[in-house]
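Appendix B. Worked example

We walk through a single record from start to finish. Start with the input: the chain for NAD(P)-dependent oxidoreductase, Azospirillum thermophilum, length 297.
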Amino acid sequence: MPSPRLFVFGPGYSARVFADRLRAEGWRIAATCRGEDKRAALEAGGIEAFPFDRDRPLADAAAALEGTTHLLVSIPPDAKGDPVLDHHAADLANLRTLDWAGYLSTTGVYGDTKGEWVSEAAWLRPTGERQKRRVEAERGWLSLYRQYGVPMHLFRLAGIYGPGRSALDSVRDGTARRVDKPGQVFCRIHVEDIATVLRASVARPSPGSVYNVADDLPCPSHEVVTYACELLGVEPPPMVPFEKAEMSPMAASFYADSRRVRNDRIKRQLGVTLAYPDYRAGLRAQLAAERDGPPTA
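Next comes the structure step. The output line below is what the pipeline stores for this chain.
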């Protein structure tokens, strides 16, 4: 009997960690790519690669998806909608080998709760255009489940961090900032814990389910930067009032919303125990791994 096959639309940071974990278990992995350099990198890592983007659907979707038992979609919607749904909804609806499918969304769909806690049952009140597109994409993916039985699961991810994309890295490269906006809190999640949640869902499929993926400690971003500086033994950058902080419209948009996201469901329904329940655990582990270096033979 052939091993399970995961097909990934958009093997970015989080999706690649999950795919690599399954590949280590003996799974077959296939993924989309946007250019020949990306294709070569995926194939060098043992991943079958297929060109895809908004302007270039899968050349032969039936062949690319053949034998796929699990599907992960990690491509965000654009101004025209969700490119995967727009090009391949019918192909996925007809994919009879599929046992599980996941869509990586964002907790941004909840909008601004002014720091109050939200669960998966909360009303969706997105405040920005990008978040509104996510809500529409979620509806599209859930409609595939309701209309055609595609075993879809939604994962609303908090701010993602991990090796290469953490406060430790931004402090080292000089881009870390401490912005002070009283009452502002952010939620975050370590990339390895995302993979753990996805793997737990694969083991306990519940099509149509929605899961918040966040750690246990929402807090202001400047606290994380301060702690990273303490670990590295450097002076933290000065606190800058939000009103005086010069930042791009994209960066400023993240400060439009303040919310605390409940993660009870991943623990109760999926049996997940977070390896990094707060940013302190995640940053300490990253620094320890860097100092220990790769294992020697």
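Two observations about the output. Residues 5-160+191-215+261-275 form a domain with the Rossmann fold fold (CATH 3.40.50.720). The longest helix spans residues 129-148.
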